[in-house]
Amino acid sequence: MQSWEKRTVLMPSKPLGLFQDGLADAMATALHAIEAREGERRGWDRPARLFTVHLEGVDSRSIELRMVPTRSWNGRDINPADALTSVARNLPQPPADLRRREYADSPVAGAALMFEGWGRPNDRALTEYEQRAAELGLRVNHLAPDRIETRCVYGVDINQQQFHVFRTRGEEARVYSSSGPDSDASAAGSGRIPHALNRIVHALREGRQLF
């Protein structure tokens, strides 16, 4: 990890204030700032990036990112969700009674995957073709004439809180968390990516060298 590229992102002076849990709100604020700096400011049409997040706590003034080399987690250049699932496949599932830990007491505060993709308008139902494709696990959003370009940051912290920063091209980013009072699986980021990050972050929390 020492040889990974490191980047520093300034922590906003005011937290988002979306969540009652102070650590969760700090991580949500950090990931929102990361998407703005490393995503929106650098522009679109960029490859997926996996990174660890280093944050001392709620009073941190900066965030350190350590970029996991692509060859270490997606050397075959496949779909990022497939690659991350492959990395996490043999890692243990975090225990249900995981003890809460402060970020400053862990090798990492969390990890996140930033990637771009295609979606469809929320107010449009699936077509018959899209429904069949979904049942078969096929990705077809990029074929839709009304497709929407999106950027996502899925993150998990060492206490297994899930975060999802979502931006549609040309719009403001939205932030969701599994710690939110009205959270649900889709808002927090359901699916293979957060489940894989759960295992990866827990292994890093326990000091395991993965990459």
Question: What is the topology?
Answer:
Elements: E1 5-10, H1 22-40, E2 49-54, E3 62-67, H2 70-74, H3 80-88, E4 110-119, H4 128-135, E5 148-157, E6 162-168, E7 174-177, H5 185-188, H6 192-205
Antiparallel strand pairs: 1-3, 2-3, 2-4, 4-5, 5-6, 6-7
Model description:
With 211 residues, the chain is of the alpha+beta class. It has one domain (5-117, 150-205). The chain is built from 6 helices and 7 strands; from the N terminus they run βαββααβαβββαα. The chain has helices at 22-40, 70-74, 80-88, 128-135, 185-188, 192-205; strands spanning 5-10, 49-54, 62-67, 110-119, 148-157, 162-168, 174-177. The chain has a 7-stranded antiparallel β-sheet with strand order 1-3-2-4-5-6-7. It is globular and about 50 Å long. The model is unreliable at 184-189 (pLDDT under 50).
